[in-house]
Amino acid sequence: MVAISREEVRNKFNTYLSRFDQTDEAIRLKLVHSFKVGGLCACITESLGLPRSDVDLVWLIGLLHDIGRFEQVRRYHTFVDGHSMDHAGYGASYLFSEGHIRDFLSDDAADDIIREAVGQHSAYRLEVDLTERQRLFCQIVRDADKIDIFRVYAVYAFGKKNMLHVNISDLETSAVSEPVMEAARRRKAVPAELAQTTIDFYVGMLCLYFELVYPISPEIVREQGNYRKLLAVHSRNEETEERLNELHRLIGEV
């Protein structure tokens, strides 16, 4: 059992964040996302009836899961890993290769769990050789991350702010690529390399819903309502609109 003081961890995390420009909206976005994912991790873990020590541990992991994003934004001014760096891999390296996990937690008993959950939170698929406990924590963090990503996209990509610079004209006119639609029909996440257009990216984002593992996760998605806002996107391309309607049927009631 790893003892965690949330207040102490928050203070240490805020100290880490103090080196970044918090007037930068991208930094603010990830700050809020980090705390929200931590809270969602705790909520999912509580729903599974796990002990308080596990709830606190997964809260910590949720808070730290995107620690690599802040340096990514400072260096490259983007969230696109393909145009910058692997933010999850960098985060795991910062915490463990550079030893900064000890800034947040003195006990090393859960290091293997934290390392895998941070390093694999954005992977298309988890590695097959994880222990049962590592996989549990990885899946919880990945569910929580997806849930809040729907909020981020609803507000910052397909909402009024459009801070992620989505080309709305392209979104409304481009065609869904066949490989992307085939992944959707299998009710699977879309590999990033398949997305060729803005509408492909949008469909891939919606397909994250299929990957939610724990029963409470889609319940939270429905309660928050952000995913419903994302489903309201329509296309002026007739074939694309038909495919979006097909995708809505695959997703079902949300």
Layout of helices and strands:
Blueprint: H1 6-17, H2 25-47, H3 52-64, H4 67-76, H5 87-97, H6 111-119, H7 132-156, H8 168-173, H9 178-185, H10 198-207, H11 216-224, H12 226-231, H13 238-251
Helix pairs in contact: 2-3, 2-4, 2-7, 4-5, 5-6, 6-7, 7-11, 9-10
Tell me about this structure.
By secondary structure, the chain is mostly helical. It has helices at residues 6-17, 25-47, 52-64, 67-76, 87-97, 111-119, 132-156, 168-173, 178-185, 198-207, 216-224, 226-231, 238-251. The longest helix has 25 residues, at 132-156.
The assigned CATH architecture of the largest domain is: Orthogonal Bundle
- CATH topology name of the largest domain, in short, is Hypothetical protein af1432
Low-confidence stretches: none
Oligomer: single chain
What is the H/E order? HHHHHHHHHHHHH
Structural class based on helices, strands and sheet pairing:
mainly alpha
Shape: globular
Task: Please tell me the overall pLDDT.
Answer: 95
The CATH superfamily title of the largest domain: Hypothetical protein af1432
Strand content: under 5%
**N-to-C terminal Cα separation, in Å?**
37 Å
| Number of continuous helical runs | 13
Helical fraction equals 55-70%
CATH C-level class of the largest domain is Mainly Alpha
Mind describing the biggest β-sheet? none
